[in-house]
Every structure is written in C-alpha cells, then in structure tokens.
# Entry
Amino acid sequence: MSSSGASVSDRKGIQREISKGWNCIVELPPRREYEAVAERNWRIEVHEGVDFEGQHFSFPEGLFVKAQVQWLEESLLSVRMSLSARVEGKCARCLADASLAISDDLMYLYYLRGLEVGKDTSLPSDEGYMPVEIDFWGRILNLSDQVWESLLVLLPLKLLCREECAGLCPHCGADLNDGPCSCDPQERDPRLEILRSFSLDDV
Ligand SMILES: [Zn+2]
Ligand SMILES: [Zn+2]
# Structure
C-alpha cells in the first residue's frame, strides 16, 4: 500500500471535535488485582463521517469498539482496544463507490506522567504499546481520545473499489476499468509524464 507518511500524531488533530461527543468511559479494575479485566463494548454513531487524507469516510453501521482494561503493575494499566467498522467512500483511483471492512486491535499503556517505563517498572519497555501519559489515576478512565486515535490508525490511506482498479485515464478521464481509451499509452501513464519532465529539465 502506498503511504503518504502521516504519523499518528499528525492524524490526531484532524476533526478532533467529532470524538468530543463520544463517551467511552470504563471503570478501572481494583488496584493490585492483576487478574481482573474490565471490559466495555460500545457502538458509536459517526453521523458526520470522517474526513481524512483528502477522503471522506462514512460509517453506515457505526463503529464497534471493545476495550479490555487490566493492571499490569501498581502504576501500569494496559488497554486493549478492538475496533471494527465498515467504511464507505469513493475509490481513490476511479471515484466509484467503495467499501471496506476495517478491524484491528491496538494496545495502549497508561501510566503517570514522569514515570519511566523500564526504569521505574518491571515491564522492560513499552514496546508493542502506544503510550499514554496521564496526570492521575481516578476510578474511571475516558478512552474517547484513544478510540479516535485508533480509528485514524485503521483508516486506509487510499480506499479502493478493488485492489486491481485500473483508475481513470489522467489524460481524457475515461474509466480504464471499462477498457482502454484511445489516448496514446505514453500519455496515459503519469509515471512517464514525470520522466519526460525530468528529461526536459536535464536538457
Ligand atoms: Zn476504483
Ligand atoms: Zn485517455
């Protein structure tokens, strides 16, 4: 898959107000009860959809979230976030309607600001986790920001109607899924366009 290289932190700021209305709150298991897992499930309506990387995604069935929260150590809390949804939008190549099922698990590690994982903890490192620093431990945890963050990690950088979509001719706009257009094949390939411009610059 091609990537525009957007990092999670780049993605976080986008349309943040959408997640403000979410209320993904979980009650923490009792401290030091390391076997106890608190689990919550939510189905979130995303009425406005999400604009991301120049694409608009809608969620006709909503977003399904499962959170499993467990103390690892006295001051380390792990949160397994499982998301699934069907997203709809336009194919990035041919603009036809496209749909994709997304689902994944993400692991978050919550700890107090200033704590050094590996130094102040038995857990050697936060490898495999997305770290979240918090200011204090309450009895509940609002996971809405991490649900939003997880959703942005899961959204495709390019939604396609199908993997082998041939796209539109950049020259005449014909849908190449319906067969070749009458353009010169050299003009049809944008990669050759780039090569030509390089060679012109070099002359
Ligand atoms: Zn397509
Ligand atoms: Zn053409």
Observations:
- The helical segments are 8-12, 17-20, 144-154, 185-188, 190-202.
- Residues 1-6, 199-203 have pLDDT under 50 and may be disordered.
